[in-house]
Amino acid sequence: MLLRPSPERLSSFYLGNTENIVQNQTGPTPSISVRLFGTFEVRRDGVALTAADMGGCKPRHILEILLLNLGTPVSKTSLIEQLWGAGASDGAVATLESYISGIRRAIQPGQTKTGPLRTANSGYVLDPQLVDLDLSNFHKLVRAAGVSEPAAAYPLLLEALQISAEPLLGFELASDWAEEARIRHAADKVAAQIVAAETAATLGVPDDAVNLAQSAIRAEPLNERAWTILVTAYEQAGLPVEGLSAYDRCRRLFDHDLGCAPGPALQAAHLRLLRQRAEGNTELSEVLAALLYLGDRMNGSKSRQQPAAESQRMHEHAGRVLDAFLQRVRAAV
């Protein structure tokens, strides 16, 4: 579930400064705006350009590769390798240069030297000050959130996640370079979702934290940090049953896929939920206390200050509590 920032959660920092974050107001106005999430789109002076305007699919691919490396020169050799691979012909350089000319005519007519597409280091580069790119805006917002206080960071993270709601380069299904970019972005998006979930929990919005953590888990089922914030958010929301269920799913998943148990932070959250669940229920409290006592004994945690007779008495009491509880469980089935 994608969360949209609500007006009451948008801080004054966000309302006054987001535009400055996604665009450099002291630099030149961007010549083109490009969308790589969802349907590919290039707009120049408010007019949408099609792949046909740039000469077809290959020029679009070239532009997309340069956009993925916004501000960093990409050599002709690299472009040819990504576009044609080992099957590149002897005329690949001339073909590439022809495609570049077509892209220039489309995105910067009459501005060969001053437009966003420049020649650099035996290759080409897009000037980030002249290109408004949604993928770049995603990263700017996440970076800004990383140096902001929680109240200011949270809406920035939600805006970044809103920008990236649709798949990156979803229309380039058969391209290795596009798949590599999607993999990198997927990891970045999960990281942003987890930070947003943790920030929501810090701000006392556990429902948002649950939804964000669940989104991260759907993308990366073995991400322990996402499971930890999910269980913690359920704890914060006063939903121990849901939290215990989430922990059990995580425990079984980790055991099956990784052959290990959840780490200390997640186990600690699980224990807090058990205690929360037992509050107000004398029998559950006694069972939990018995389990914790016997667990400590099994792990070799023995009290040196406790007499042997007292230790034996407590051990027997814990056994009786668990035995009585199990008998009631069997009778109820």
TrEMBL record:
Domain OmpR/PhoB-type residue range list: 21-128
The entry lists its GO molecular-function terms as: DNA binding
What is the originating organism of this protein? Arthrobacter oryzae
The record's listing under SUPFAM superfamilies reads: C-terminal effector domain of the bipartite response regulators (SSF46894), TPR-like (SSF48452)
- Does Transcription regulation count among this protein's keywords? yes
- GO biological process assignments: phosphorelay signal transduction system; regulation of DNA-templated transcription
Q: SMART domains given for it?
A: BTAD, Trans_reg_C
| Record key words, sorted | DNA-binding, Transcription, Transcription regulation
Asked if the Swiss-Prot or TrEMBL record annotates the protein with the keyword Transcription, the reply is yes
**DNA bind region:** 21-128
Q: What PROSITE patterns is this protein classified in?
A: OMPR_PHOB
* Family listed: Belongs to the AfsR/DnrI/RedD regulatory family.
PANTHER family, sorted: TRANSCRIPTIONAL REGULATOR REDD (PTHR35807:SF1), TRANSCRIPTIONAL REGULATOR REDD-RELATED (PTHR35807)
Recorded hits in Pfam families, A to Z, give: BTAD, Trans_reg_C
**What InterPro entries does this protein's entry cite?**
AfsR-DnrI-RedD_regulator, BTAD, OmpR/PhoB-type_DNA-bd, Sig_transdc_resp-reg_C-effctor, TPR-like_helical_dom_sf, WH-like_DNA-bd_sf
Know the name of this protein? Response regulator receiver protein
